[in-house]
Automatic annotation (TrEMBL):
An example Gene Ontology biological process: stabilization of membrane potential
GO molecular function: outward rectifier potassium channel activity; potassium ion leak channel activity
Chain segments annotated as transmembrane: 78-96, 108-128, 159-178, 190-208, 220-244
Ion transport in keyword set: yes
Signal sequence range: none
Name under which the protein is recorded: Potassium channel subfamily K member 9
Originating organism: Papilio machaon
Domain Potassium channel: 76-132, 168-243
Keywords, ordered alphabetically: Ion channel, Ion transport, Membrane, Potassium, Potassium channel, Potassium transport, Transmembrane, Transmembrane helix, Transport
Family: Belongs to the two pore domain potassium channel (TC 1.A.1.8) family.
Length: 330
């Protein structure tokens, strides 16, 4: 079995094992509290029903009225401020569930809006995350030059540490702000910030839902939106680094597997031995079918590829680093 298949199978097994462990821990922590709360609520319900002689139908109607009235405590949810907050939550894939469209037109537009907005938001957050990583690399390089370190280049661990510190600062600062405005404890506010920026969005804690905040506190509304957008961009920067690290490890493993299988041929280029992967006739046919626009195939089956742009040629030349050449020639 190839190493990639073993790694995939190992990831599946580890993920399901992690799920089982999480389920066991949550069961141990929450099940008793849930049972006790249910007993208390049942006693209070029975007491109210007996005291005011409420029929089951009337009690069900009271439940509906209370549940439906809860979102209106924040003010009109579908005026521009509330609608903008809802659109931000949809685009960021947080999905608190605090307000949802009820009309057929609103539900249809929400689906169409999400199909366009979610990919747009992902690309935007990814792009901002890349710019943040670039800025962090410049700062780290200048700091190393100022401290006269032996190596001045920003490594992946440096960038991960920088984005991790920035994420921690955003979450802790946001927790202090929301604790001040919402009246939550600091731990609950920290929990809300973490659930929001990781796009889990349980909806048990939602900002801007008390004291007509959507209409009476425009500054607080703007601050909440900035926190969500900027915080998600920083989290995207961290995720971008992790994805790049994983892709680098996968590429290195692929190179080692191809070297082990002997599927590379050494070609002398400018006095260096460059490893080139051999392609079978089926591989050539597959490449030709995927690149039929712009590529041509001669009678011998070899691909005639048009000259690449200068940027791509420069990137290809930079890809043949001494480490890669040395590893490929072993």
């Amino acid at each position: 079995m190839k190493r990639q298949n073993v790694r995939t199978l190992s990831l599946v097994v580890c993920t399901f094992t992690y799920l089982l462990i999480g389920a066991a821990v949550f069961d141990a922590l929450e099940s008793d509290t849930e049972r006790k709360r249910w007993e208390v609520l049942s006693d209070m319900k029975n007491s109210l029903v007996r005291k005011y002689n409420i029929t089951p139908e009337d009690y069900h109607m009271i439940e509906i009225v209370i549940i439906e009235n809860k979102p209106h405590k924040a003010g009109p949810q579908w005026k521009f401020a509330g609608a903008f907050y809802f659109a931000t939550v949809v685009l960021a894939m947080i999905g608190y569930g605090h307000s949802t469209p009820v009309t057929v037109g609103g539900k249809a537009f929400c689906m169409a809006y999400a199909m366009v907005g979610i990919p747009l938001g992902l690309v935007m957050f990814q792009s901002i995350g890349e710019r943040l990583n670039k800025f962090a690399s410049v700062v780290i390089r200048r700091a190393k030059c100022y401290l006269r370190c032996l190596t001045t280049e920003a490594t992946e661990m440096n960038l991960m540490f920088a984005t991790g510190m920035l994420s921690s600062i955003i979450i802790t600062t946001g927790a202090a702000v929301f604790s001040r405005y919402e009246g939550w404890s600091y731990f609950d506010s920290f929990y809300y910030c973490f659930v929001t920026l990781t796009t889990i969005g349980f909806g048990d804690y939602v900002a801007l839902q008390n004291d007509q905040a959507l209409t009476s506190k425009p500054g607080y509304v703007a601050l909440s939106l900035v926190f969500i957008l900027f915080g998600l961009a920083v989290v995207a920067a961290s995720i971008n680094l992790l994805v790049l690290r994983f892709m680098t490890m996968q590429a290195e493993e692929n190179i080692r597997d191809e070297d082990k299988d002997g599927s590379r041929t050494m070609l002398p280029i400018d006095g260096h031995a460059i490893a080139v992967r051999q392609r079978s006739h089926e591989d050539q046919a597959s490449v030709c079918s995927c690149n039929c626009l712009g590529n041509k195939q001669c009678e011998s089956g070899a691909l005639l590829v048009e000259r690449a742009p200068r940027a791509l040629r420069r990137r290809a030349s930079l890809a043949f680093t001494p480490d890669l050449i040395e590893r490929a020639s072993v």
